[in-house]
């Protein structure tokens, strides 16, 4: 049988050990609770021992009473009494056993907690090391990135007013994000808006028919775009980036960074990406009506009517307004052009291709010093000559697109007569002359437009392509100037519009505008265009 003295010694040993224990126990948040249990058990053992000593019969060694007539009986009784009080009853043994098991369980829990805390600390340390070398995602944008097996990668919340971007980081899209071990069968998940999925290369091969040439819908400097059908039946545009050079990798990371955070009706939606070994692919929503470039400059595409052109102009203005005013820091697209404006089934425009985008995080006096990248004919003069990039650089590019909507011409056309090679240089002196503006209109419109609308849109374009950035408007001003024109497309009948009736909501054009708008003295008149 287990005696109280043995149990007492065990508890005393544990108390002594934990009091002089290594940091394994002393650093544990449950260390005091563990010692409390031991003290409780210590006193629960001590009290019964003292009680047993106090209630010992008089025939014991401390209280001897000799009966000469019953020595043998007394001896037997004393022996029985010593046997009874020197051992534990079954109930006491059960209590001691339960207590001992409790101590062991508490000890195991303490050890497990310490080990888990250590493993967690190691994991955090490895994650911090990875972020320093490959970048990390840190933002409060409303988006969730989900692996195809359903495991979530990011679950942040959205803001109704501004979008915060950490542009010096990137998602886990480097090598090893996906491997061949991830290419097994996966349960299809129907795409949800704002959810960016990670695809394997094998999945995208299946979606595009092994990247069949018959599924090619676009080809640019940075890659080839295929039409594909994902495993859940979603039709998507799958962009395969070229492998050579570091720029393709950087462009890939930038697009995933931005489009997984920025969600707007006027930006093309990123459905997912693939970073499987050396393959880099982006999966976008499919835009069935192609690009604005195709409809303006390719004869095999249906020409756009005047109302559609106005709506496209407003959609694009709202896209840039979102990037400039609602993203924190502001995002500069840097490659805004007709081929990066996609049209959905209703010919509503969405801006795409953010591979060259920059944010205002590295601004110096409101400007970003950067290597000149972009497309000839769309570059703002100050950016092309000095590399100084601001949101007004995008405004200039928008003005060039607006001129293309008006004239149907490309930005640079060496096939044109001398003096007409560069669209902006040819158009700017004519934009403020009411008579000359009519002669600039795209012949594809066949005269089906409002002359009053034409003059006002021409004035907006002239403001946007001013050589000096300070004279260009904000995109918010451009949006507010175009809204009344687009609203009148539905509120005014077709016959009334083609009789050149002016809605009182139209923007006022100063009659004194003659010739160039580049002088500073006309700046007040320029601002009045966007404030009335």
TrEMBL record:
<feature type="binding site">
    <location>
        <position position="239"/>
    </location>
    <ligand>
        <name>ATP</name>
    </ligand>
</feature>
<dbReference type="InterPro" id="IPR011009">
    <property type="entry name" value="Kinase-like_dom_sf"/>
</dbReference>
<dbReference type="InterPro" id="IPR000719">
    <property type="entry name" value="Prot_kinase_dom"/>
</dbReference>
<feature type="region of interest" description="Disordered">
    <location>
        <begin position="60"/>
        <end position="84"/>
    </location>
</feature>
<keyword id="KW-0812">Transmembrane</keyword>
<dbReference type="GO" id="GO:0004674">
    <property type="term" value="F:protein serine/threonine kinase activity"/>
</dbReference>
<protein>
    <recommendedName>
        <fullName>Protein kinase domain-containing protein</fullName>
    </recommendedName>
</protein>
<dbReference type="Pfam" id="PF07714">
    <property type="entry name" value="PK_Tyr_Ser-Thr"/>
</dbReference>
<dbReference type="InterPro" id="IPR017441">
    <property type="entry name" value="Protein_kinase_ATP_BS"/>
</dbReference>
<dbReference type="InterPro" id="IPR001245">
    <property type="entry name" value="Ser-Thr/Tyr_kinase_cat_dom"/>
</dbReference>
<dbReference type="InterPro" id="IPR008271">
    <property type="entry name" value="Ser/Thr_kinase_AS"/>
</dbReference>
<dbReference type="GO" id="GO:0005524">
    <property type="term" value="F:ATP binding"/>
</dbReference>
<feature type="compositionally biased region" description="Low complexity">
    <location>
        <begin position="69"/>
        <end position="80"/>
    </location>
</feature>
<feature type="transmembrane region" description="Helical">
    <location>
        <begin position="6"/>
        <end position="25"/>
    </location>
</feature>
<keyword id="KW-0472">Membrane</keyword>
<keyword id="KW-0723">Serine/threonine-protein kinase</keyword>
<keyword id="KW-0808">Transferase</keyword>
<feature type="transmembrane region" description="Helical">
    <location>
        <begin position="93"/>
        <end position="116"/>
    </location>
</feature>
<keyword id="KW-0067">ATP-binding</keyword>
<feature type="domain" description="Protein kinase">
    <location>
        <begin position="211"/>
        <end position="486"/>
    </location>
</feature>
<keyword id="KW-1133">Transmembrane helix</keyword>
<keyword id="KW-0547">Nucleotide-binding</keyword>
<keyword id="KW-0418">Kinase</keyword>
